[in-house]
Amino acid sequence: MNNGRVLFIVHDNHQEFNYFPLGVGYLASVLRGLGAEVEIYCQDLYHYSNDQLADFLDENSYDLIGVGFLAARFRETVLGLCEVVNRHKKNAWLMLGGQGASAIPEYILQTTRADVVAIGDAELAVADLLREKTAGTQNLGGIRGIAWRRGEEVNVNPRQAPVRNLDEIPFPAWDLFPMEDYSRSVKFAGQPEDVEKSLAVISSRGCINSCNFCYRLESGIRVRSVDNVIEELEILVHTYGIRYFIFLDEMFILNKKRLLEFEDKLQRNGLEIGFSCAARVDIIDHELVEILKRCGCLFVTFGIESTNDRVLQLMNKNTTVEKNIRAVEAVNAVGGIGVSLNLLWGNLGDTEETLRSNVDFIKRYNNYQQVRTIRPPTPYPGSGLYYEAIKRGLLRGPEDFFDKFTNSDLYLVNFTDLPLDKFYDLLYEANRELILDHYQHTNGDMVEAEGLIKQFKGLYCGTNQSFRGARDYTPQEKLQRI
Length: 482
Known about the structure:
Elements: E1 5-10, H1 22-33, E2 37-42, H2 43-46, H3 50-59, E3 64-68, H4 74-88, E4 93-97, H5 99-102, H6 105-112, E5 116-118, H7 123-135, E6 146-150, E7 153-156, H8 179-183, E8 198-201, E9 204-206, E10 221-223, H9 226-240, E11 244-247, H10 256-268, E12 274-279, H11 286-295, E13 297-305, H12 309-314, H13 321-334, E14 338-343, H14 352-365, H15 384-391, H16 398-404, H17 420-441, H18 446-461, H19 475-480
Parallel strand pairs: 1-2, 1-3, 3-4, 4-5, 8-11, 11-12, 12-13, 13-14
Antiparallel strand pairs: 5-6, 6-7, 9-10
Helix pairs in contact: 1-7, 3-4, 10-11, 14-17, 17-18
């Protein structure tokens, strides 16, 4: 019986830090559970060229080849990758997925000439797709949660209901991946210097909000049981030696009760870990921060986004400046936990005054574990800002978006009343001030600070569009990229 042979390609990000590809890990585990033979091709870690990929495909045959991506990488990496796969895939179906494909499936299919796009969470759709392929019937019209192409005709099927009980999804198929390399690839915020291995995990999917700069695969939020999360952490600690985790949940902290249960079961199972996570500001108080600290949290990320209530309202942030301040002050008062203050500028309602307020906020509440800079929002396809830009005549659609997009630290669509050159002058001066402030409060290395500032200058002037911001690079890498 042919249960299928599947290849997942983790595309190159053209960087030396690479998160473990959780989405691929889950899909690989689901398909292997159906008896499929699954392989992973890690272009991201090893920077295999497309020519090397072509040779690999020529030597192997598959039923299904999957690639997931974000919109920011589409023109840079994915489009050329798809051309190579299409020339060498033999009889396989090329399936694309992730946020980049799900938001605009018709355009992606027409442009890449892929066979299928998985829309939303793909665990159920990819299982149905492989069954159809190995059965030889090729009746794609009956599979929910996909768009598909036959010649020039593109069809979008009804959505698949997402898996409500996330505990039913098997753990990622870690053993198919080079875990030693992935666990040493990224030094996450808050990770102690003496902890060599770290990994990304997720304990929930989704969010309760609809911020205008976000696009999500599914609406609403679904959570795994705490027992299920603890079981996963135990395997990663004892089998792979992971000691630090980044929870990629948009809402790791749902409520105090769940966090207390997490603390209790960490203790009962003798798990001593460190981790970073993201949290909404609404429920943060001193007691909750103390619980986080006892659990091993060393870094928390807040999507502050703006220090102006009108701007927060226009971006559908569903919070207030007062709540933002209260949450950050609680973390800093307890101490021992780094805080990431994420702020955007250039959203609806932003002005020169809101930028000044954002800079002052960061300088007041920063605890200097990361270089904090401010970036403009990008109206990625599927987001509220994308549709607002189309409504205003600032974008014509996905082709126009990709024609204009080069870097998420550049301003693709101007939602302010400022001329673009003035916008960049103000943003440059703001980030210059924040970078100098950071180094004055940390190692005092002004040569390094000026090198980083020079990269932002080149980015905004158009001479260094490959620079991707300050937060993900070690000091040595920053110096090498000047």
